[in-house]
Hints:
By secondary structure, the protein is of the alpha+beta class.
Amino acid sequence: MSKKHIPIGLTELEWETIIEGLNLKNATVNDYRKVINLLHRFKNGTYRIQTISKEQADTYFSYLDERQQNDELSINTVHRYQATLRSIGTFMETKPDIWPNYKNPFSRLVRNETRARTRYSKETFANPSVVATLLNNLDKLDPQDQIIIGFMANLGMTPTQIQNLQVSCFDRRVRNPELPLTGEFDTGTFLEYTNRHYRLSPYRTGGYPVRYVKRSPNRTITWKYLGTFEFSEDYKNQLVDFYRNIGVSKDTRKFFMTQRHLEFNYRAMHHMIMLACKEAGIDSKDVTPYQLSLYGLIRSYLIDTSRRKKETIEATLALETNDARKAELNRQLTTLNAIYEKLAETAPIIGYWQDRFPIPLEIQVKAIRKQMGVNFLLEAVGIDPNEVPYFI
């Protein structure tokens, strides 16, 4: 390992132990290295993660909070820096052979413990007509680029999720290839505020597709949600054409690779989307990977909501006898059908989430709706709210 890649103040053994022990991905390694280097540079190198005291840790956290208050750092960045140091300190406590008598000085420093919600504005999102133009010109791209953009624009996958996607995430029954192709995707994490043991959580006992991540000092449990997405027959065929053994092979290799057989990281994705925009005849700066993911998040939510509520309303309507109530239900059904049809006009619907819409994604959509309003969810995917007579 090159010395320039080792954080200031750490030995090669210490850094390798942290990387391997926390099972860090490449992007995360870079972030952790940066956070440790920033700590070391504070007070001219007198604050080192191996020797920093509780009082010094508190001073450094106060310094980060002050930078946030002065608009030098965003509140999310400050949270990430502080959470990273807590995570490293917690791990170092478990390795007394390397760090004897080490006690995590960053634990239970309660400031900025909860990540602030992202602040959204119209500028955060891409123009839906531009995204529609991009999606209508996907046939000009190679198969891998088509699928990557399709996953982002239909499932709301983030660049990190695209990068970490493995061949083993997909499943098709080997004995019956005619069965649907599904993908089990890490859709992010969410918090549960509770005093109970994680084994007694309703998310655990209720059969939710979750994995326990950790419990924080502020009595929150972090859960990872693994959503299962079932692909349509047409899109399944497109995926099989791209990767013949999809759903059969349990290979842990990355599903998407660059032409140089490297991970499809953010830089590669950003470059690919710029070229795709050029092929579609639109400005390469009009759509970023993050904006495309947000578009897909809202589109996926509206498709899922429309589909599930249509099923509920149709079942209720079959039993309803009150004329006024039936008229109201029919009005709602008309709206949901209109939304579904307009979304299908923009781009083919490639499938749907099984069981329920993933909780972390739902939380994010609700945050957007709370800040921007219900009508904005429609506007963000190119639907005029005035053309929709009613929206739940």
